[in-house]
Structure prediction request, 111 residues.
Amino acid sequence: MKTKAAIVLVLMALAASAGRHYWLNAHGHRAGAEQPVATRPAEPARFTATLETAHYAIASTAAPSQTALVSDAVESLHGAYTTFWRLTENRCRSAQVETGPLQGSAGIQGA
Prediction:
C-alpha cells in the first residue's frame, strides 16, 4: 500500500510539473528568458504635441484627438476629486457645528 501511495505522489508531482511547463509555454513565458527591462520615458523633445488644460500640461506622442480625450478625462477627474473633498470637508464642519468638536480632537481648522 505504501508503494502505491508513493507512486501516486510521484505521478502527481510529474503531472503538476508538466502542467506548469505547458501553461508557461502556452502563455509566452520561456524558461530562462529575460524579462523586458523598463525603459525611460521619452524625452520631452520627442513629444509631438503639448496641450495645456486648466490644471495640467499634457505632453503627448498620440494623435491630437486622443490627447484631447485624455485632457477632458483628467479635468473631469480633477473636478470629481476636488468636489469629493470639498463635500467631505463641509460634512465634517457641519457635524462640528451640530455636535461641537470631539473631545481630544483639534477639529478642522480654516475657512
